[in-house]
Amino acid sequence: MYIGGRRGLNAVLENTEVDQTWVMHLDFSTIHRLWPQGKCSKLPFDGNGRLLNIGRLHQEQVWIIMAPNEWLEEDHPMNATGNWPVLPCQTTSMDISHAMMMIMFILKMLSDRRVQDFHCDPEYPDELTK
């Protein structure tokens, strides 16, 4: 499992200056996939409601994990106890409204970068679950 050293998608970006073979397959039909339970996939905080599968890079699954804000603060008091906030969710996948917000953000970002095959209206929709 690769985890980025900071906020963002740096864990899935190639660390070479130019790699013409780098391909990441986005697949937004897997957003309800559950995080695999196992020793090597154990998260340091409760992952319920915080994970979104967005595709794969080579043979690896790519997940966006919305870590608790307290976990991201270096000297937060909760870091000593390990008792971070828990979301009221039954599974590890994000609820549909948050998943759609994240997908819309990714697509808007790709559209702004002029990646082909993506187009977004100039404004986010009023109801982000559309």
Tell me how many strands there are.
3
Bin the helical content.
Answer: 10-25%
In round numbers, the mean pLDDT is 78
Please state how the strands of the largest beta sheet are arranged side by side: 1-2-3
Give the tags.
130 residues, alpha+beta, 3-stranded antiparallel β-sheet, 3 strands
Write up this protein.
With 130 residues, the protein is an alpha+beta fold. It has a domain at 24-71 and 82-112. The chain is built from 3 helices and 3 strands. The protein has helices at residues 69-72, 78-81, 96-112; strands spanning 24-26, 51-57, 60-65. It is globular and about 45 Å long. The two termini are 32 Å apart.
Summarize the SSE layout with pairings.
Elements: E1 24-26, E2 51-57, E3 60-65, H1 69-72, H2 78-81, H3 96-112
Antiparallel strand pairs: 1-2, 2-3
Task: Report a brief summary of the structure.
The protein has helices spanning 69-72, 78-81, 96-112, and strands at residues 24-26, 51-57, 60-65. By secondary structure, it is an alpha+beta fold.
